[in-house]
Amino acid sequence: MGRADLHIHSDHSDGAATVAQILFRARHLGLDVIAITDHNEIAGAQEARRLATRWQLPVQVIVGEEVTTSEGHLVGLFLKERIRPLLTAAATVDEIHRQGGLAVAVHPFSAWLKLFDCGGVGRLVERLQFDAIETANGNITEGWSNAWTESYNRKVTHLAGVGGSDAHTEVAVGQAITLFPGTDVQMLRRAIYYKTTSVWESPWKLGAVADFVRNHLKGKMDLFGAKGGAISQSHAI
């Protein structure tokens, strides 16, 4: 089975890790595919894809973006262009599909992230044309949210369930992943289309939490400002 972490933040938005650190961590963990999904930005993902190719790493990189819509955060995968924030969720999903990408409802029911204006789209996932839903988010705060989302998807939305670490530090990469038949990005897309994905979440999170706190105290992360996706209309450019 292939292993993919589909939700990672670099220092191009509010993460502490460089894309090089993320790439080597992914190689160390034996991940086949990663998606860099910085907030409202794709430059880090594009850099990661270039470096992975140049260095001939056995890790394929998807260009992604966690977009702040007017109704919550969502992720676009396989993007060609940056999507500007604060469009409606429906318009953002349409733009992802126009680019030939996949729309993922990430942490749709996270009560914790909603406190910081970084929550997901909630029950809009029922009405919009999402391709997948994040049923395993690697943050230690998301245990209840993950369980609820998995149950909700099983009973209501019936989308491909995917996992992503939502890593903001190097150590957090791989804390939650997507398992799929095959090892490359095209087989991953096929698995999402045919809903043959499954998820895995690490039971050991204290190391990632300690790394998060350490980097936060060093001032390496801008978690709750514009770089963290909590933006106002004045930043929507």
Give your account of this protein's structure.
The chain has 237 residues and is α/β, with parallel strands linked by helices. It has a single domain (2-220), classed as Metal-dependent hydrolases (TIM Barrel). Helix content is 31%, strand content 22%. The protein is built from 7 helices and 9 strands. The protein has helices at 19-29, 43-54, 89-98, 111-114, 143-157, 185-194, 206-217; strands at 2-8, 33-36, 60-69, 72-77, 102-105, 132-137, 160-164, 176-180, 198-201. Strands 7-6-5-4-3-2-1-8-9 form a 9-stranded mixed beta sheet, with helices on both faces. Helix 4 (111-114) links the parallel strand 5 (102-105) and strand 6 (132-137). The longest helix is centred in the middle third of the chain and has 15 residues, at 143-157. The chain is globular and about 40 Å long. The termini are far apart.
